[in-house]
Amino acid sequence: MNYDKATLDYYEDAAPRYRFSTALDHHRHLDPFLDRLNAGAKILELGCGTGSDAAHMIERGFIVDATDGTAAMVRKANERYDVAARQMRFDELEEHNAYDAVWAHACLLHLPRADLPNALSRIHTALKPGGLHFANFKLGDPDHPDEGRDPLGRWTSLPTPDWLEKCYVKAHFSIVERQTYRGNGSDGVVRDWLAITVKRT
């Protein structure tokens, strides 16, 4: 599985600005996701960024393994929230049956489409049977579904909802919930997003 160096470099450089950005508040889909879990569940967070979501999960009593692919974001998460974040790229995930849930807010969208199946396979393997996984993706135009770089230079896959659902089903997940919503990314572009919650089958 590949990863995009330019995207990782962007987050390394942007970490100081993200500390005082909209990343201050936990994501609106987080509490509904956490409400599906048993008390004390163990959660892997991919792409933890500045650590606000991890801090909220810990505050709610969950065991959290917060990870990010960039050292600068890991430092910021630990400086700000002391969440014991660690550096890990998606292709370095190798745990087996280790987590009750995997939270991946606005991070898997930076993978090239060809590499998403491998990441989903790793997430499936890392989850315990019946474990839950959340991710959200910026959606592309169905008539022109081209992936590529956003205005900030980050790689963005821009898939369609049907394509994403098929990827999850092929990775042996069952769809629990999917929601399309209008959102403004950090690149300033307003577009449709898909939030998807799935279960390991």
Can you walk me through this structure?
There is one protein chain. The protein has 201 residues and is an alpha/beta fold. Helices cover 29% and strands 28% of the residues. The protein has 6 helices and 9 strands. A 7-stranded mixed beta sheet has the order 3-2-1-4-5-9-8, sandwiched between helices. Helix 5 links the parallel strand 4 and strand 5. Helix 1 runs parallel beside helix 4. The longest helix is centred in the N-terminal third of the chain and has 14 residues.
What descriptive keywords fit this protein?
single chain, 201 residues, alpha/beta, 7-stranded mixed β-sheet, two-stranded antiparallel sheet, globular
Compact summary:
This protein has six helices and nine strands. With 201 residues, it is of the alpha/beta class.
Summarize the main sheet.
7 strands, mixed
Mean pLDDT: 93
Q: Enumerate how many helices there are, as a single number.
A: 6
Strand content: 25-35%
Class by SSE composition? alpha/beta
Q: Strand order, biggest sheet? A: 3-2-1-4-5-9-8
Number of strands: 9
Order of helices and strands: HHEHEHEEHEEEHEE
Task: Give the CA-CA distance, first to last residue.
Answer: 23 Å
Cα radius of gyration in angstroms: 16 Å
Unreliable stretches:
20-24
Shape verdict:
globular
As a percent range, the share of helical residues equals: 25-40%
